[in-house]
Design goal:
Blueprint lengths: L3 H6 L7 E4 L3 E5 L9 E5 L11 H22 L3 E6 L14 E6 L16 H18 L5 H6 L16 H10 L1
Antiparallel strand pairs: 1-2, 2-3, 3-5, 4-5
Length: 176
C-alpha cells in the first residue's frame, strides 16, 4: 500500500482527525489553503469518483455539509469551497478521492479562476441531449424480474436506495 491516504485511514500515519466512521474519515490538511482546511476521504481506496459507491458518496457530502456549517461558526469563515478533483487532468495529485473543505475569508488570495468559453446554443443543445440520454439509460432501474436474475456483481453500478444519514447527524450533535 503506497497511498498516503490509505495509510492515514488505517492509522499507520498520524493525522488530526475531525470525524471517523467505518467508511470515511475527515482530517485537517497539514498543508492547508487556509487554517481549518479539511480533507474528507473514503477509508477504502477509490481513485476516481466514478468508482465511489453511492452510499459513501452520500456520507462524504452530508459530512461536508455539516462540517461547512461548523467551519463557519467555529472559525468565523465567511464562506466555504468544496472541491473534488477526479483525474490527473482535473488536478488530482494523489490517486485517492478526497473532498476538500476550504474555509474562506475576505482577501485570502485563494482563487479558482478559469477562462470562460463561449459555446453556441446548438452545441449546448447537443450536449444536453447526449447527457440526458446517458443519464436516463444509465440510471434506469431494471424490472424486478430482470433484477432477480442478476448477480450482485452485475448490480454493483446500479444506484442504491436512499440512505438515511440521521445516525451520522446525531454523532455530530453528540460529539461536536
Amino acid at each position: 500500500m503506497d497511498c498516503i491516504f490509505c495509510k492515514i485511514a488505517k492509522n499507520y500515519i498520524p493525522s488530526y482527525k475531525i470525524y471517523e466512521d467505518s467508511d470515511i474519515i475527515a482530517i485537517l490538511d497539514i498543508y492547508p489553503a487556509n487554517p481549518g482546511h479539511i480533507l474528507i476521504l473514503p477509508k477504502e481506496h477509490f481513485q476516481d469518483i466514478s468508482k465511489l459507491p453511492d452510499d459513501i458518496t452520500g456520507k462524504i457530502f452530508v459530512l461536508a455539509k455539516y462540517l461547512s456549517i461548523i467551519l463557519i461558526q467555529a472559525l468565523n469563515a465567511k464562506g466555504i469551497n468544496i472541491l473534488l478533483s477526479s483525474g490527473e487532468t482535473a488536478g488530482q495529485r494523489i490517486p485517492h478521492i478526497i473532498v476538500h473543505l476550504i474555509p474562506r475569508y475576505e482577501n485570502d488570495n485563494i482563487n479558482f479562476v478559469w477562462d470562460r468559453k463561449q459555446v453556441s446554443n446548438e452545441v449546448l443543445s447537443e450536449i444536453q441531449k447526449i447527457l440526458v440520454y446517458y443519464l436516463k439509460n444509465y440510471f434506469q432501474p431494471a424490472s424486478k424480474e430482470t433484477e432477480s436474475r442478476k448477480t450482485d456483481k452485475e448490480n454493483v453500478d446500479k444506484p442504491k436506495e436512499y440512505k438515511d444519514y440521521t445516525k451520522m447527524i446525531h454523532w455530530f450533535y453528540k460529539n461536536i
